[in-house]
Amino acid sequence: MEKGSTLIYDGTLDGFFTLVFAVFEQKLKVTAIYTEAGVQQDFFSEPEIVISDTEKAQRVKAGMEKYISAKGRRALYFSFLSEQAGIELLMLQYLQQAFKKENFSETDFGNPVVLKITQVAKMVSREKHRMEAFVRFMLTKDQIYFAQIMPDFNVLPLILPHFESRYADQKWMIYDLNRKYGLYYDLQTTRYMTLDLSDDLREGKNGTFFDPAEIEFQQLWQQYFKSTNIKSRKNMKLHLQHVPKRYWKLLTEKSALPN
User: Fold this and answer.
1) Where are the alpha helices (DSSP H) in the chain?
2) What is the pLDDT of residues 82-121, one digit of tens each?
3) How far is CA 244 from the centre of its chain?
């Protein structure tokens, strides 16, 4: 039985595209793909480390522009940001089919690879829109609007344009607690950054960090939300469809209500 290859890359998008280039160049049969941080032992294949190469990655991107529509490329990018186990192997299979098959269709949902990539991309897209809706900023003493999120998927790169355009006149920071990195906008540019957050800061209760007016505003908002919550008209099933419970922890208005 022919052994397949287990490939390891650095976890970046360029690293993945370099891996794709290596697969085509060396005609590899790949059975598993892991990031350096998530590598697992595979007794049926020899692990090979693929070093990221920008030039090779660009050649794959050029091929994608030739054979795959903008919608298809978007689906692949969103799928990559899902960070789901095994997604890179699916993406590789998608690209292999797109590059080799004359009758390849991005809407052929009878194709299990196309169907799965499309489904994962839709999940990431929904998470993107929810993060854009559910972000709650808190004003710090440095006059920076600070928000924390805990998305299921790595959507920070996707929500960046939304907040750059909508909040271009104020400094802001959005931090992903799950992935321990964030975005910081300084009125001119947005950059990625990391922080070491204390527990009280994560809970928005650090009085030495937040502006006093911010704490008062949070209390007023909680009171308003509670006063307008009419129990007789409460429809929890509908409410959970629009605001899933996993988002409640970081919503200012929810901290005043029992779970």
Assistant:
1) 13-26, 54-67, 70-82, 87-100, 112-134, 156-166, 199-202, 212-227, 236-242
2) 999 999 999 999 999 999 977 889 999 999 999 999 999 9
3) 17
Quick one: how many helices (H) and strands (E) in the chain? 9, 8
CA dihedral 27, 50, 78, 250 (to 10 degrees): 160
Instruction: Give the chain's mean pLDDT.
Output: 84
The DSSP letter of residue 142 is: T
At which residue do the structure tokens 């990195």 appear? 181
Query: d(Cα 257, Cα 259) in Å, to the nearest integer?
Result: 6
Q: Which amino acid is at 89?
A: L
CA-atom Rg of the chain in angstroms: 22
- Cα(first)–Cα(last) distance of the chain, in Å? 55
Length of the chain, in residues: 259
The domain locations on the chain are 4-126, 135-256
Q: Looking at residue 248, what DSSP letter applies?
A: G
Q: Who has greater pLDDT, 161 or 224?
A: 161
Is the pLDDT reported for residue 237 higher than 70? no
- Cα torsion 83, 84, 89, 93: sign: negative
Asked if 113 and 90 count as a contact pair (C-beta separation under 8 A), the reply is: yes
Q: Dig out the tokens for 130 from the structure.
A: 């929810």
Q: In which band, very low, low, confident or very high, does the pLDDT at 243 lie, cut at 50, 70 and 90? A: low
Cα separation, 181 vs 178, whole angstroms = 8
Higher pLDDT among residues 171 and 103, named by residue: 171
- State residue 33 phi and psi, 5-degree precision: -130, 130
Amino acid making up residue 173: M
